[in-house]
Design a protein that fits this description.
Strand content: 5-15%
Distance between the termini: 23 Å
Number of helices: 17
Shape: elongated
Oligomer: single chain
Strand order of the largest sheet: 4-3-2-5
Length: about 400
């Protein structure tokens, strides 16, 4: 039985001959994200869908397939149907007409997972015709319902594109589109799973007047003033190559010296400052980075820095820049840290060699696709990183990474 989520109605050639003009068909040509397409439908479901700009050729193909039916053109409803297919991504009822082999092959195509591919031999094996690969390939090529019956997901055994009735370039576009959206779906599902497991994290944590670390779950009003904004920036620099526990120790030392503010830092001896941030490691370099950043922070006069301007500062890399933008300035830049990459590699979502920019783009793209409201999107950016840190501390701090992690897809 097919896993397709709508009805699959089969019309035998004999039934079709008997019905003749009593079989009413509507059709029209309209736009899709992949160019123009001709679609036809009846009360039994979608009967025909073909890509192309040559209207005469497309109508000839439709007539060849359904010429006995009584046809009515309806361009307005055609656009509505195509929007349901390609925009709303609905699983619409289908009406299939073909030989027994063709019907079995088309149903097998419906079970190829979204974002995946199979080769002709695999399809032949599924329909129990492993020795009739050519006949199976012919049935695949005879499919008249593009995209919904995903013959584009069948590729050559060597990994090549293989043929496609509506052009190899459209096939390549369809596969790229689906693979991207499949990955986006998994990334967003990961975010949902983590949020369900751990709930809101209340990042970025701030030191209160008593030196206690203040997390603020579900309160997204932080930073509430310039002092908190600067503390987040400071923490983002200090956390380079160390744990947040070590950062807290450094911040507490500075607070004890009354040097957690810009004015306070400027008023103490440099050696005392270095000693205060020593728990965070690399204190000589980080002290230089921090005082360089202080001059930059003051020059902003409350404005939001660009990512490019931050990256131009000594000691500010991509991770630190995104941390500052996301938590200190509430900008749409997700932070990718070591935990993030280890988790995504373990789950098979990225390659071990994936660069920071690629992972960042992938995560941001996934959240942007599934979260429409900007306020909710910013919350998702902030929570996703914090949730990964929470999960990463438990399962991705030591090799072998991922032992005991139950997240899976």
């Amino acid at each position: 039985m097919s896993k397709y989520k709508a009805n699959i109605n089969v019309l035998t050639p004999k039934e079709y001959q008997t019905l003749g003009k009593a079989f009413k068909l509507f059709y029209g040509q309209a736009m899709t994200p992949f160019g123009k397409a001709l679609i036809a439908w009846s009360d039994k479901g979608i009967c025909f869908l073909a890509f192309g700009t040559d209207e005469e050729l497309l109508y000839k193909e439709l007539d060849r397939k359904w010429g006995l039916a009584f046809m009515t053109q309806d361009a307005s409803r055609a656009q509505s149907y195509l929007d349901r297919v390609f925009v709303a991504k609905e699983a619409l009822d289908l009406c299939l007409k073909g030989t027994l082999l063709q019907i079995s092959v088309w149903k097998a195509l419906l079970d190829i997972p979204y974002g995946s591919t199979m080769n002709y031999s695999q399809i032949a094996k599924i329909v129990k015709n492993s020795k009739a690969i050519r006949a199976v390939a012919s049935a695949i090529g005879a499919n008249d319902i593009a995209y919904l019956i995903p013959c584009h997901r069948v590729i050559a055994k060597d990994g090549g594109m293989g043929g496609y009735r509506w052009g190899v370039e459209i096939k390549r576009l369809l596969l790229s589109y689906e693979q991207l959206n499949s990955k986006n779906s998994k990334i967003y599902e990961l975010y949902q799973k983590l949020f369900h497991l751990y709930g809101p994290q209340g990042w970025w944590p701030i030191l209160n007047k008593d030196g206690e670390v203040l997390y603020h779950p579900s309160d997204y009003t932080f930073p509430r003033n310039e002092a908190e904004r600067f503390e987040i920036c400071l923490g983002s620099i200090l956390t380079q190559n160390t744990t947040f526990t070590s950062v807290v120790a450094s911040l507490k030392n500075l607070q004890t010296l009354d040097a957690l503010s810009i004015d306070g830092m400027k008023s103490i001896d440099l050696e005392r400052f270095k000693k205060a941030i020593r728990p965070s490691g690399y204190f000589n370099q980080k002290s230089e980075y921090i005082f360089t950043f202080i001059a930059f922070f003051e020059s902003l006069q409350g404005s939001v820095p660009t990512r490019e301007a931050l990256l131009a500062l000594k000691g500010i890399g991509e991770e630190t820049a995104d941390s500052i933008l996301l938590y200190a300035y509430n900008q749409f830049h997700i932070k990718v840290d070591a935990y993030t990459k280890r988790l995504l590699v373990h789950l098979g979502m990225v390659d071990e060699k994936a660069k920071y920019a690629k992972i960042k783009q992938m995560m941001e793209g996934a959240l942007q696709e599934y979260v429409d409201d900007n306020n909710e999107l910013l919350k998702a950016y902030q929570e996703f990183h914090a949730l990964i840190v929470h999960h990463g501390k438990q399962f991705y701090s030591k090799k072998p990474y991922g032992v005991g992690c139950t997240l899976g897809f």
